[in-house]
Amino acid sequence: MNDKASTWNTLQAADRATLWHPYASATRAADAYPVVGARGVRLQLADGRELIDGMASWWCAIHGYNHPVINRALNEQLEQMSHVMFGGLTHPPAVKLAGILLDHTPASLCRVFFSDSGSVAVEVALKMAIQYWYSVGRPQKQKLVALRNGYHGDTFGAMAVCDPVTGMHHLFGDVLPQHHFAPAPDCPVDGPCSDGEIKPMADLLAAHHQDIAAVIVEPVVQGAGGMRFYSPEYLVKLRALCDAFDVLLIFDEIATGFGRTGKLFALEHAGIEPDILCLGKALTGGYMSLAATLCNQRIAEGISEGEAGAFMHGPTFMGNPLACSAAIASTELLLSQPWQRSVQRINAALERGLAPARALPAVAEVRTLGAIGVIELKQAVDMAVVQPMFVERGVWVRPFGKLVYVMPPFIMNDEDLATLSAAMVDVVTVLGEH
User: Fold this and answer.
1) Between the CA of residue 321 and those of 178, 289, 313, what are the distances in Å?
2) CATH of 70-335 among 3.40.50.300, 3.40.640.10, 3.40.50.1820, 3.40.50.720
3) Which of 161-170, 323-332, 339-348 has the weakest average pLDDT?
4) Residue 374 and residue 427 in contact, taking contact as beta carbons nearer than 8 Å
5) 252 given a catalytic annotation
6) Are 170 and 134 in contact (CB under 8 A)?
7) pLDDT at position 95, please?
8) Active site residue: 281, 287, 402, 416, which one?
9) Which of 64, 153, 168, 389 could form a disulfide with 409 if both were Cys (CB 3.0 to 4.6 A apart)?
């Protein structure tokens, strides 16, 4: 056995004995693929093979891996300090990053609360909404409204606003807070939204607005709940409804932020402003875990002048200097480049490369938006079967349910995009034949 094979076997055996992977069995899961390096858009496996990464590490590595600009920023920050508590202290990376985020998000947003992950950013947003209403003397407004097919994270508050059927959390349904759900919009992303599409939401708010703190949605793209795209006009109408019924509006842009949909933030497709905005994933370019929850002055003042006199949340690693430095470098790198052209180029390549799948009998729909490509099948895939098929073709694609999709790094060239798309069509073709 050569050294690479020995390393591969050793890592897999140790992993199998000790680790528990996301959404996987601890005892019956397929072996994980050992990665020993990553550069550009490629993952280097322990056995020497390389995979073109179509997932950008769950959508966050927008610049690819091992980028010299972000590497340098982290090394420079490490020489200063890696961490300091944020209670009563501040530091340049957090101050600078907050300024950058506020400069590039809607003007009404004025405060940034940092946390560790996307799920926690959602928890923070929900707590902000509920504490706001308590602080202004309307404590009965504790319920939330979310969309069917929505996904907002895996912690308890976030789970409670995920679709209770498709949101992967139905096992916890009996212990989660019970909230309201409106039908997912069924209006095409490039088309209008009829009054009929928004009517269920309007009826729900009309009936229950006295008890509703906020509506939370993923603007334009519903991510892990189904990779569904819908009309920005729905958001325009939703903003008007929230204003009419005095309900706060939360946008969860953890998956869609930082250029993924072709706009810097998906809310720009609709031209409206939420009361609270959640950011994460690509915030640091995939280098470190960091998220942010932004809010407007109404929220900030309402909470701060209320009974508690403070927002009651405080993550230990809030505003971590290393993570903030990575986020500054990643965001400045993105904004310094013609990223819109890169996303348009990726969209054209995915549209072209995935088009043949539309003719396959196993395929329900093919759709693309920005740097997102989705093949929706008529039947759910068997991960134990499909994952090795992609690895054999030299690409990393991680389907779920009926969805075979990619969200590649923005630096991926046309040749690699063609290889990625061809592998997706090929695998789906083979699945259809069996």
Assistant:
1) 37, 12, 19
2) 3.40.640.10
3) 161-170
4) no
5) yes
6) no
7) 98
8) 281
9) 64
Report the chain's C-alpha Rg in angstroms: 22
pLDDT tens digits along 111-142: 999 999 999 999 999 999 999 999 999 999 99
As beta bridge partners, residue 366 has: 375
402 in active site: no
Whether the CB-CB separation of 265 and 253 falls below 8 Å is answered with: yes
Q: Which of 65, 132, 134, 151 is catalytic?
A: 151
Q: Which two tokens stand for residue 336?
A: 């310094």
Domain residue limits, the chain:
3-66+340-433, 70-335
Give CA–CA dist 222/211, Å, rounded: 25
Q: How confident is the model at residue 358 (pLDDT cuts 50, 70, 90)?
A: very high
Annotated active-site residue in 3, 23, 190, 195: 23
pLDDT score at 167: 61
Reply yes or no on whether 132 is catalytic. no
Cβ atoms < 10 Å from Cβ of 277:
29
Q: What average pLDDT does the structure give for the chain?
A: 97
Other beta carbons within 10 angstroms of residue 16's beta carbon come to 14
Which of 44, 38, 43, 47 lies closest to 10 in space, CA to CA? 47
CATH number for the 3-66+340-433 domain, one of 3.40.190.10, 3.40.50.2000, 3.20.20.80, 3.90.1150.10? 3.90.1150.10
Catalytic residue among 53, 154, 252, 416: 252
Displacement of CA 273 from its chain's centroid (Å): 19
> Tokens standing for 256?
């869609």
pLDDT tens, residue by residue, 188-212: 999 999 999 999 999 999 999 999 9
Question: Is the predicted pLDDT of residue 166 greater than 80, yes or no?
Answer: no
Torsion of CA 309, 299, 332, 231, to 10 degrees: 160
